[in-house]
Amino acid sequence: MFVDHIQIHAQAGKGGRGCVSFLREKFIPKGGPNGGNGGKGASIIFRVDPNVDNLTDFYYNPNLRGKNGEHGMGKNCYGVAAEDAIYRVPVGTIVWRVPIAETTAMGDAARHDKGFTDFSKLSDEEAASFSMPKKQRMEFDPEVFELVADLTEPGTDFVLCEGGKGGRGNTTFKSSKNRVPIEYTDGDDGEAGTFYVELRKIADAGLVGYPNAGKSTLLTKVSNAHPKIAPYPFTTLTPHVGIVELPGFQRVTVADIPGLIEGAHANVGLGHDFLRHIVRCKLLLFVLDMAGSEGREPIADLQTLRKELDLHDPTLSERPWLIVANKMDLEGAKEHLKHFKTRYRKVEIIPISAESGDGLETLKRRLGEIVCEGKFKPEPARKKRGSADSAE
Questions:
Q1: Which residues, in sequence order, are bridge partners of residue 251?
Q2: How far apart are CA 194 and CA 161, in angstroms?
Q3: Is residue 64 pLDDT above 90, yes or no?
Q4: Were 148 and a residue from 95, 167, 205, 321 both cysteine, which residue would form a disulfide, CB within 3.0 to 4.6 Å?
């Protein structure tokens, strides 16, 4: 199971209670106060681990709980602080705070209108309708949710909810005017909240294309990644990241994004689940079926893909991009490519055949020049024509 977004609830541990105690030993029948403080509650911590690649653990445990600190004891013994609860998250995790709306089944005014002045006389069914406030699950909205953290550095520890401080024992209340204090304090409650956690894969380049365009085959041939490959659409349902080894001990990470379709920006065909992983890619590689083996036109495919990315996030239109003309070994591919080049004269096009391996070395060398050496001639600014196709 691959989970890249989930809503969780976190509750840090409460601090231990302070102790009220007095020294009682032989020949010291009325000793002074010696009640210790309570221990600190456990904090909820996210640790960025590069060995973790999804959020599946939170699917089975969406309620994160920290242990409470121990209570203070006599003889000035402090309560033991609870061990922090550490949860490992993948690199590229984003944490949002969810504003939980609380509603009641029926307000006091409504109760009064119904004539219920004595609630003790309500039946079990009527009493059940007057429930306590309920938490409502909210759909993700970046304009409403509060961004808490963007975890992109491996090894980083982020305190999601701080544990409560321990309470004070009566020893801390001792003074010249209060020789026998009996005061103490309870431990503070730990922080709590509901959070929306999502994963956005971090890669140097992202493969963008329609289903069955050959993205998974291409990733398999240029890296050691092994995504599922089959002759039917939507074989790839989760993003895969492969590492492309280049001369000079250089590396480029390439993400295979599941196939996009028209309407992906509106979450058609799980569009949002796929598009979120493109946002972090530095370079976009549009993989097109140049032979039109699926009955589509390469020019129309590119226009639709560019439009969907632009509608999802306008900043994606400003990213460096090039075209990978795949399936050049099939009949009709050369004619389509010739027509394609007349339409997009200023866009870089790399013809390949992922199945046979033709052109892959050229593609890998170009990836190294763009990502590692920064040798990329940016595409001219798009003309405002109301469509996402560009640089004709």
A1: 245
A2: 10
A3: yes
A4: 95
